[in-house]
Amino acid sequence: xxxxxxxxxxxxxxxxxxxxxxxxxxxxxxxxxxxxxxxxxxxxxxxxxxxxxxxxxxxxxxxxxxxxxxxxxxxxxxxxxxxxxxxxxxxxxxxxxxxxxxxxxxxxxxxxxxxxxxxxxxxxxxxxxxxxxxxxxxxxxxxxxxxxxxxxxxxxxxxxxxxxxxxxxxxxxxxxxxxxxxxxxxxxxxxxxxxxxxxxxxxxxxxxxxxxxxxxxxxxxxxxxxxxxxxxxxxxxxxxxxxxxxxxxxxxxxxxxxxxxxxxxxxxxxxxxxxxxxxxxxxxxxxxxxxxxxxxxxxxxxxxxxxxxxxxxxxxxxxxxxxxxxxxxxxxxxxxxxxxxxxxxxxxxxxxxxxxxxxxxxxxxxxxxxxxxxxxxxxxxxxxxxxxxxxxxxxxxxxxxxxxxxxxxxxxxxxxxxxxxxx
Length: 423
Ligand code: AMP
Ligand code: GLY
Description:
alpha+beta; D-amino Acid Aminotransferase, Chain A, domain 1; nine-stranded antiparallel beta sheet; five-stranded parallel beta sheet; 28% helix
């Protein structure tokens, strides 16, 4: 089989690495890919939003399966564009990717189908939102409706901050058209868990749990980022939590989408908060998480290509999804200054240390090849991942491996997985 992967981050590197393990696969392409992905796939210089070019490429190379990693192309309808030409593609169609593409849609869906989430109101104009804030309890959470690179959520402690936030999102359009609508919702507290799942339109199979670290600095300080590190499984995702979510959240979401005529095939990523009143949905994503994928896929036993195909064919009920009884930790090495401003183009040294090591992985997020050398090419540069018998061992291994590589302005959080000690 020939497989095309669309995307260029650490998530896509982990997907490409896992696809490469499938005995069914002879050749992998990745568009546009990065310098690390180039070790398992042939990178093609086509951007993720260039649907026409991607479709033409898939036809020319007779690609058997395309896998889309990123949110933008999914929400923009890449799956529809491929299907229209009779090409096999893994991911939700545009009318289903709205589950991530519009927070107002997903909140309304949860309300209509009684799926536990924070209380909220949707707003189409700033005036109504500001009026609502006059009597709302603080802290409060403001969310731009559309995709905003994970930055469209503002947690406001005071009414003044909330007023300023509404203006940023709706009046000043800080997140562009993503702020044409907004959600204002109740502030919840509790531990966060990420749960990824495969969905074939009717059946849902849950992968193992993970926890992200979204803030830039130790102690969950600093700005929100794409994610500075992850661990899997989450010790807080207990059997009781799993049972609750299976009963009230997972299948209900899949059924709700079908009921709405928006059959969902692909990955649903459930961002959950474990509140004292039980698990609540913080958000849905219509794709693998980054860097959750980097700790989930190394633990997955199945041939991922078989699972992708079962999702497309509606036969996921036949798949026995299995994970190793171990743990994994990913520490992101970033460029100092991320997520605001940072320099690129520094040589990365020590990458060979990961060769031929089964339980250590160096997933590339933002790297490029320049004059025969691998250089930094993004805010998040590498996702150093290690597996271990348990979380503590995996964390020790991952931090050990962060020392093997070096580049100018290398920055990381030193407390990824600290919560493990509190479990
Ligand atoms: P989201 O993009 O919706 O996952 O939001 C990004 C982050 O904002 C989440 O990971 C949470 O840490 C935080 N957040 C979102 N919604 C709420 C909420 N209702 N209460 C508290 N924190 C929230
Ligand atoms: N790590 C969070 C996300 O992928 O959205």
